[in-house]
Predict the 3D structure of the following.
Amino acid sequence: MFDSALTGLFQVLMPHHMLVLFIGVFMGIVFGALPGLTATMGLALLVPFTFTMSPTAGLIMLAGIYVGAMYGDAIPAILINTPGTPAAIATTFDGFPLAQKGMAQHGLVAAAVASSFGSLVANIVLAAAAPPLAEVSLKFGPPEYFWLGIFGLTIISTLSSGNPIKGFLAGAIGMILSAVGMAELGGDIRLTFGFPELQGGIELIVALIGFFCLPEILSSVIGQRRTAYAEKMTKPSLNVLWQVISALFRRPALMLRSATIGTVIGFAPGAGGNIASMVSYNEACRWDKHPEEYGKGTIKGVAASEAANSAMAPGSLIPLLTLGIPGSPPAAVILGALMLHGMRPGAELFTDYADITFSFIMALLVAAFLVTLVGCFGSFVFSRIINIPSRYLAPAIVFMTVLGSYAIRNNMLDVWIMFIFGIIGYISNKLKFHPAPIVLGLILGPFVEEGLVQSMLAGKAAGSTFIYMVYRPISGVLIFLCLMSLLWPIFAALRAKHKQAGVDDTVTSGKREGRNESN
Amino acid sequence: MSQTNEPQSAKRLNADLIVGIVSLGLAALVYFSTRELSKLGGLFVDYILVALTVLALITTVKGFIKPERVRFFESVVERNNVLAGICILLLYLIFLPLAGFLPASYAFYFCFNLYLADERFTTRNILVSVFLTAAVVTAFYFIFHHFLEVPLPQGRWFE
């Protein structure tokens, strides 16, 4: 295996393959960065270009696109509060506040470094332990998906620590929205109100653009007539690179935990980067000594989200390469590309086609380094985008939101949904009813529903739904994590109160001692 | 002057009550729209409806007992700006399928750009807006229509 890996690495480092990889990374970043275009779309569009190439060069290019897109989606998330793909939703929580503070470059560099780190860890796992991990991935049944979805939802208690009831109410509204369209099980058409276009459900990107991007423009650029998109101008400098890189490497636990979460969620087929980034963000916030910094603009939040969603990409290739089960939509496109080049997933990929397979894996690894370079040095350019006066920037952003919403399904209804969600997002922001949990519910609703309905059917057949859903090792761990995550804010509040009481006692006793001394 | 700048909505709104009542309305709408679903199709919706109703009721009750009050618009100018912005976007969306992608987008981009400028109708502003409109809209048209082959709205008026 080591020989194959080394051969693969040499293949990737050949000049023409490096050029192909760089083009792939660049295209991936562009596709990830434009709201409405996704990694899946980028891969699907560029697969035909790889037909004329050798299998190695073709797969190297696809690896570059995939890794590039996983970083690219962070750029609009940080700069304009619009995740390029749903996987970057948690990146907006801290990325955009950072940009507002004039620290867009900090966010962009943190995203690039964390993305590369996440990708690196997941690739090592992919290269070293793909076959045994693939077997574990098969242990993910409906109950595990249900509890994974619920675990993702517990992030609401972190996001809305000030008013959890309103947060969970928003989450419930999001889950109702996720029920729009045809039911996966049962086939019922639900809540379409006579619009046949809604049978496919509400498109996630449309909701993200509506709830995150439009309200910000309506509020700051149009409403308050702010001349610049951010409150403070960003001044990129080389110092920021070192500051951010050293700050992140002083937090190995955060980086490693996020990368591990991304890899594990990645190899559970279907879970995807959306859940990975949210779970990772939640855990980073929970384990941090200063959870109050999250949501106000900290590079730790950006790093947690980006390391996880980038680690998810190679993670999702574990069941693909070993079992032929794509762990994510982009992995499904890669599966198609493999088949077109005459390679069938399974053991023979690691024996008969070992050179090509390891070239692909090593390309993912090298692409991660390229992302660091492009991300770090590109941050000098990208971060200046929000310094452009808002009268020039805002029309372009609004135009792109309309175009992005339309392009997903070539459908005007999606544009109207984006517009309506934008107005709702603006009103709800004003009413201190933040829309992030609505989007969270919309993302996780299908997982929870599918897991719940399938578990209930299987549980009934097995004799007891409760036993079927609870008495399983992975379910047990997830239930424990759900409880921990839900109760953590209460525990943290009590701990803070206790600490405050301690400080107050010290101050009071100090004053008393002072008075006694003066007496 | 300051009095004219104070909009009617400057009085603080009961955010909890509004959110609670709207959510209860949504729950009622979903309830009456999903009564004919099959058992499998309605299972998840029913569970979420219960949660939505309970949470909406708690929020409504909180609105009566300990309401969170918010000011919607800080000034009349802000309100007018937001409404004007929404109207421009609304007109764009209405005209997009009628006039087609290019004409509607050129008009929207030009108007929106000019609307956001401090001094609107100076020659310089108009020229800058024309240049930007032509460059950005045409560039995106080529990317989406020719490279990505997205079938953009043709416009019913020109069919």
Notes: Chain B has two domains: 8-70, 76-158. Strands of chain B lie at 13-14, 69-70. Chain B has a mean pLDDT of 86.
